[in-house]
Amino acid sequence: MAEIEDRLSVLEAQVAALVERFAAEPPPADAPAEAAAVFWALDGLKRRLPADGSGAVLYTGTVHLDDQHYDWQYGRTVDDVLAGDWTELAGVLTALAHPVRLRLLREILTGRHGTGELAGTEGLGTTGQLHHHLRQLAAAGWLRSAGRGRYAVPAERVVPLLAILTAARR
């Protein structure tokens, strides 16, 4: 009898863990609209915030690109965001405000890392223009040199970049 109770206790713990896990996961893509309307990440954020605060902003993502995997989560309180000097962000954002630079970032994220590969891509301009854009992106922190004319988007910038692009689509 004790053996059955022990096995039952283990099964109950496993079921409880599964219920908790699935309650925290987003609904599947083919779920009905009612299930898709559940703000699972937002609900988790709200549970962690003080009731008298001004709120917070959170972005998170899990990305598989070019044989790389990136998991990222970042959040700040609204008070922190509003208190910062937004003008100091102009250079970082300006670096993204050019069609060739956005195209370069997409090409690099999807596997073209070398300047030779990139130079062969139609629409990116001359080699001099290409290097100018690569320098602008690197100076703003959107790219890093991976050695010998190769570039990569830093791991800590992949999800933020995709979040910005997602937000820009409205």
Automatic annotation (TrEMBL):
Transmembrane portions of the chain: none
SUPFAM superfamilies: Winged helix' DNA-binding domain
Superkingdom to which the source organism belongs: Bacteria
The name this protein goes by in its record: Helix-turn-helix domain-containing protein
Organism: Micromonospora citrea
Source organism phylogeny: Bacteria, Bacillati, Actinomycetota, Actinomycetes, Micromonosporales
